[in-house]
Amino acid sequence: MDIQVNDILTMKKQHPCGSKQWQVLRIGMDFRLKCLGCGHEVMLPRSKAEKNIRTVEREGEIVC
């Protein structure tokens, strides 16, 4: 899956704040994601993150 820094990911499950959208801050074996609802940052293993991604937006257009 082609994910780059600053992409906006829409996940299958909601964050407790109610938002499903996350901004990618760092990529590698783990992703550092920032919730666009509350600003909380989390580190997720790549395998877990890729299973939960519904759509990927890059510069306003949906990539995947």
Please characterize this protein's 3D structure.
- The protein has one helix at residues 46-52; strands spanning 8-11, 21-26, 30-35, 41-45, 53-58, 61-62.
- Strands 4-3-2-1-5-6 form a six-stranded antiparallel β-sheet, covered by helices on one side.
- It is built from one helix and six strands; from the N terminus they run ββββαββ.
- The radius of gyration is 10 Å and the shape is globular.
- It has one domain (8-62).
- With 64 residues, the chain is mainly β.
- Strand 5 and strand 6 form a beta hairpin.
How many DSSP-defined strands? 6
The percent range for helix content is: 10-25%
Give the distance, in angstroms, between the N- and C-terminal Cα atoms.
Answer: 9 Å
- Oligomeric state as shown: single chain
**SSE pattern:** EEEEHEE
Major sheet: 6 strands, antiparallel
Task: State the secondary-structure class.
Answer: mainly beta
Give me the number of helical elements.
1
Mean pLDDT metric: 95
Strand order of the largest sheet: 4-3-2-1-5-6
Radius of gyration from CA coordinates:
10 Å
Low-confidence runs (pLDDT<50, min 5 residues)? none
Number of domains: 1
User: Any idea what the shape is?
Assistant: globular
Strand content: over 45%
Organism: Agathobaculum butyriciproducens
Protein name: DUF951 domain-containing protein
InterPro entries: DUF951
Pfam families: DUF951
Nutshell version of this structure?
This protein has one helix and six strands; from the N terminus they run ββββαββ.
